[in-house]
Fold:
Amino acid sequence: MVLIRTLIFLFIILILPDWYIYQRFICKSDKRWIKICYWIPTTLLLLGIVTIAITHDFYPASMQRLSYFILIFFILIFPKLIFTLISLILTPIRKIWKGNKTGEYIALAVAAFALGELIYGATEGKQHFMVRNVTIPFKDLPQAFDGYRILQISDIHSGSWTGNAKAIQKAINICNAQHADLALFTGDMVNNLASELDEFIPILSQLRAKDGVYSVLGNHDYSTYIHWKDKRMQEKQIQDLINKENNMGWHMLINDHVILHHGNDSIAIAGVENSGNPPFPDRGDLPKTLKGCDGVFTVLMSHDPTHWDRNILPETKVQLTLSGHTHEMQFSILGFSPIMFKYKEHNGLYWNGNRALFVNVGLGYVMFPFRMGAWPEITVITLKKA
Structure:
């Protein structure tokens, strides 16, 4: 369903701008070959959408083809879309000053700028790793953990980085340079298959923190987007991924927790399995995860931020929840991202009373090899005694 919705969206933004530009400019030409040539790129893209709808299977090679197609699609269509929107907005100028082409020139300039931003986001933007420092105060934080620094990364989507290990090495170097007390990964290590991780195991194994590295599973890690004929094959994929992360020196928490001690004080680091709204997997078991955490300050990793409102707030006393999943849609302008219409909590720090949720916008990307504004993120959270 995610793929079908994506393709329908691509179809709409393909046809509408082309139809507007054709009616506004192209159809006025008396040269038939110009009218025919104008529709050639659109026809090829339509064939591409149909081909993907028929053949896509979510395996790594197919995912890469989809990624390249979406990139080419937006390079060809996005400037037209921007031109159309600006041209429509500036329609009053055209009506007041008939024959004045200022509106078209402005639309062309904005479209050219948008194309440049798109190319940057698809080349450098997707690996423009940013460190976000966040201080979160709690009245009930144990004194020994005042100033404790947690490094959070999320949504690596290693299959999207195939052939670009250099970028992942850069990210891990930045992570290690933070000298954090603890490192937490909040899910979506792969797109669909555990084998996507193999190329990056030597690099990700280098991640270090004084109190260790812990991780949880995200919705993509369950390999739910592939139609498995035998559920045992899917479960084997999940177990293979768990084993590989553990072998990297990362400690996978599967509806489980650990207690960290500093002097006479302690905190719990808990990890719940993915709990998302349909169609995303819901395997979270909070009672099992938090059994034995009563009275202990708790940091909970839960991949999907909707879990916070649905279950974590009403059913637990967890002080700090860390999530990922949204990617901020890999696109943000002046703090605006379309993802806000889908997720109430989608980027950064949120409070409910004295309990907090932090949503990391992810280190990697999926489907569309692009980031603009919602830069790939490495978060350093400092816990403070309020």
